[in-house]
Amino acid sequence: MVALALCMFWKVAAHAQSKIDSSYSNWYYDARYELYNHLKHHKADIVFLGNSITERGNWAELIPGKIVSNRGIGGDNSFGVLARLEAVTALKPKKLFLMIGVNDLGRGLPVEVILNNYKRIIRHIQTESPRTKIYLQSVLPMNENKLNYDYLKGKNVLVKQLNDGIRLIASEYKLEFINLHEIMADENGELREELTSDGIHLNTVAYKIWVNYLKNKKYL
Amino acid sequence: MYSLAVFPQVEPAPDTGYINTHYTAMNKLFAEMPPLKKAVVFVGNSITEAGKWNDLLPGHKVLNRGISGDITYGVMARLPEILKNKPRKIFLMIGINDLKRGIPVETIENNYRKMVEMIREQSPGTKIYLQSVLPVNYDMLIESFRVIKNEDVAKLNRTLRSMADNKKIFYVDLHEVFADEKGELKKEESPDGIHIKIQSYYLWAEYLIKNKYL
Fold this sequence. Notes:
The complex is a heterodimer of chains A (220) and B (214).
Chain A: H1 2-17, H2 27-38, E1 46-50, H3 52-55, H4 59-62, E2 68-72, H5 78-83, H6 85-89, E3 95-99, H7 102-106, H8 111-128, E4 133-137, H9 156-172, E5 176-178, H10 181-184, H11 204-216
Parallel strand pairs in A: 1-2, 1-3, 3-4, 4-5
Helix pairs in contact in A: 8-9
Chain B: H1 2-6, H2 21-32, E1 40-44, H3 46-49, H4 53-56, E2 62-66, H5 72-83, E3 89-93, H6 96-100, H7 105-122, E4 127-131, H8 150-163, E5 169-172, H9 175-178, H10 201-210
Helix pairs in contact in B: 5-7, 7-8
């Protein structure tokens, strides 16, 4: 009901502003939304929150000994994350690693709208689970040559703008900004081709590099 | 060869149809993961693969070793790799794709006996949980799965139940959760008459915990 109400609110709001597509609901999202609501009573040490790039990470296996919850949903955007935060903050995680926004860019949402959603996400988490340490991870660049999805082509420049904004928000809210470009991007700022088969998603080697980076930086 | 010719029913040639790009890719992925000792390992086909077991069972050191489309022969081929790290428990569910491929129930049952034997030899400390192979729902099934008969599923499950010794080998009757009064897969928990809805897996996890399998 809450989700529905919010959804309707956004539909109205979106209409008022026109051209802002704030939808996020689809069968894939809805099924996971329902599952995670069933798992709200769990407690987690670490939550990874985001889209398919997060969902496909085998975080629990890569980080043994900790209760790691994967709350990635393929195709999700910043509006979708906002709508399901309640089931995330209920886990009262010690740490939360966020990566969201590339699907927002894919559908043409302005960077300012995404960044505004980041602020709403942060405020919501800080209110509902104040002891959770939030890590904002840079949105990964894509590899143009390997990219199969036309709607994402040529958007690395927007990824950079988005990350510049996320970095500012991190300092505004005194949060850690994790620049994954240090390990994932090549000298042209594109996703390193050996880490991806479709130009956007990651292979197992990439996830291991990612986790090692988080460990080396003492985020984990 | 000679014995095969004389007793062709005893040892049919293994069905190697389980080898495909997904099977190969998943095994590569599993091999790339850091080894984890004394884990709880879920082994099976797409029904296992789709389960977000780590999220369903936090704190249980769970490995998902489900591969969509897999059959008993495919599991037998990859069991040694799984057993290397001496799992604490193995939750097994395999066989529905065997039935789809027309592998006789008796052959599937024999393969189960071989799998149990492999586990006992290669990792004697591992507790084995034989989960009931889930029935199908005829009304919902897509054409290619219509060859599956729930009577065959039931026969296989009776054998699995008889294999349990309740010391090292347990039978997990998931029909209590997912079968309706006619013995078919519950419509409301399935998207297609054979798989389980992603949002229904928590019922499975709750059942395992309630019955102290975990």
